[in-house]
Amino acid sequence: MPKEIFYWDKNTETLSAQELKKMQLAHLKQSVHYAMHTAFYNHRLKKAGIRSASDIKSLDDLKRIPFTSKDDLRQCYPNGLLAVNMQDVVRVHTSSGTTGTPTVIYHTQEDIKHWAELVARCIIATGADKNDIFQNMMTYGLFTGGLGLHYGAERAGLTVIPSSAGNTKRQLSLMKDFKATVVHATPSYLLHIYSKLEECGFSKKDLCLKKAYVGAEPYSDNTRKKIEALYDIDVYNSYGLSELNGPGVSFECVYKNGMHLWEDSYILEVIDPKTGNILPEEKEGEIVLTHLTRRATPLLRYRTRDLAFVYKGACKCKRTHRRISRITGRTDDMLIVNGVNMYPSQIEEIIMRIPEVGNNYQIHLEKEGTLDKLIVKVEIYSKLFTGDVAQLDTIKEKIKNELRASIIISPVIELHEPGVLPEFEGKAKRVVDNRDKL
Asked: What is the three-state SS of 73-91?
């Protein structure tokens, strides 16, 4: 059924493929020029035979540029990738550094302005406008999720409630009192909020929600459908990562059939993570992005480690920017259990479509002798937790059989009452690996 289409920048969003490539080439030359101001890229590009931006003659020359990795960013910490004078920098974002040296991204005033324009484009594409009240439940601070959507929503004219993450009862009060119509949160936190509605003294009728933007952690399409059913709202997938600004890299439009990646600002490649070869449309691989407009920290051919594929064909919304799938996992999230490769998202995909499963789960990995043991702990709906052992055994067997059919491995299933497993107000920790590190 046709839907009403909304644009923020219709000319750019509907450029022909030829016009888009012409724009990309001009921006790529500019990005290479900026990158040459950093010692890192100056050395790396010259080694690849690129001595200046004029050596980039066509988009095919992108292949001459080596990939940039997260380790490269770490080695450049704190200012090895800074391409402008520090007095031109207005903001710094860094990663948490919990898995090693942090990565750092600098922004000029123009970089921030352009980022907000992209996020505004995303928000308008979902049908939201200045009549909406937007409650932003993502963490503010060095993490880009909160500030990225905040500035974009203000640019688009929405009324923003910067509630940040946590304090569920307060979140519900704000949603009710100010009649929030759009929220931004991790999917796990939206499920958590719903499970606390009655306990906090609210009901679904107290809420005026129409839309939710979710992201910042891997999740399945069944999780999205579950949130939509629970709240009776539209849930939109979004994608971004701090190295490429944060949210606003790609977003779903009203058709919710893949996320439009803004190709006037990024060059998208999908590669085989093992060989580095570029893959065709509809073939899942690792997303590689080149930032085309950021001045302070240019990034060329950045390996995101995120896995997705590019949809074939045009979107009904008439936007010409290609669509990528929901992120199905990360190359470094892959679990190897008794020699079998799997991603946590595969497990979530299965358990979230089982009606008896509640809103929370966790995957544990243990060693049993020389073998790996996969334990999937799930909370079930309280109404089903009657103490009927036969009923619980039936649910347990159902989950086990469906998982075994998908991931080959036979897991141990633990059923828990709601509220027993750890709850997270930010990114959920879904995997607990207690096996000895090699």
From this structure: HHHCCCCCCCCCCHHHEEE
